[in-house]
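The instructor's notes for this session suggest beginning with a concrete chain rather than abstract definitions. Hand out the sequence below and ask the class to guess, before any prediction is shown, which regions might be ordered.
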Amino acid sequence: MKIHLDIDCTPEEARAFLGLPDVAPMQKAVLEEMQKRMMANLAAMEPEQLFKTWLPAGIQGWEQLQKAFWSQMTKAARDRPPKE
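After discussion, reveal the predicted structure:
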């Protein structure tokens, strides 16, 4: 035996019928707090701020980056086994 029921109601009506709490106010408060935090952290996504965070200040930072790059390249070239 198979029984099939179609119930036509809104989510609010279903929650009230089943005795579930209304979480809409809590969800709204959480979303507002997330939006505030995201907007506060958006300033860190500006390109100038990213460079300040990632690289040391000034031209010396670029020189250090170049030196590190070239030292890794020369080390990789030295450590490569000779071709036969």
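Then share the key points. The helical segments are 11-18, 24-41, 47-54, 58-79. The chain is about 65% helix and 0% strand.
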